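Q: What would this chain look like folded?
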Amino acid sequence: MLSGLSLVQVALLLIAGVLLDVLLGEARRWHPLVGFGTLAMRIERLANRGSYRIARGVLAWSLAVLPLTACAAWSIRQCGAGALAGLGVHALLLYFALGLRSLREHNLPIADALERDDLAAARTLTGRIVSRDTAAANPTELAKASTESLLENGNDAVFGALFWFAVAGGPGVLLFRLANTLDAMWGYRTPRYDLFGRFAARIDDVLNYLPARLTALSYVVLADHPRRAWRCWHAQAPTWPSPNAGPVMASGAGALGLALGGHAIYDGVAETRPALGDGVAPEGDDIRRAWRLVRATTLLWLAAMMLAGAMYA
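A: My prediction, written as structure tokens:
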């Protein structure tokens, strides 16, 4: 293992990190990623000017991510990778990178609001987690937005982090989370970020390539109709603009038997995106079904790592 940890240690630390996330959730104050976001904004303001925007974006990304990752690796080495203190640093880094409980806390209230016909609350809650316009969205559009967010962010906020922790421990999961955060901040095709944020977007694509496909495969394994999920993945993912969101969302939509994608409004402009899945339009309860799929996938990954650790102990 790149982390220097045994498979048994990795499995136990994955369980510890998930348990910390489930029990504690996101840090309400002094969250490290909030501080990192502030640092990234300052670096961007200084670097994103003048010519050579792509090169400046590479430099800015490196200055934001690499020193922190190196610091994490150095701290673990000083504590002793296999010592209790070093294992604790590993577990804390994984905990700060995970967002399983956050997915539940942000999405299930939308299902509750839709079920009690509180459209105003559902629009407000959905608008907090997606970039599309929700001010005039109907219940189906809100359920679709939340379900898509759960499926896609299951990979970004949970499975990608678990994968990179298994590969490279605390420093690996930290690098993944910081890179994912910079993609969310800089990876837009706007006049300001198109060139500057191109490196951040491509690095995130590379780091998410394997986790996204393992996530899609997990959705197939856990689907009520695996053939449908497999078919949707391979037929629809190539039509989606994101190379990693496509497999995850198409497979997840097929696993749930839902029709996702299609019409949405961004910044007042209507867009028609490729169709995802095969089935009925989503309702409030389908948000809960999507959450249960993400939760089951988490348990599947933990069980697989425990089995691997037991087999090669």
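The beta strands are 259-266, 269-277.
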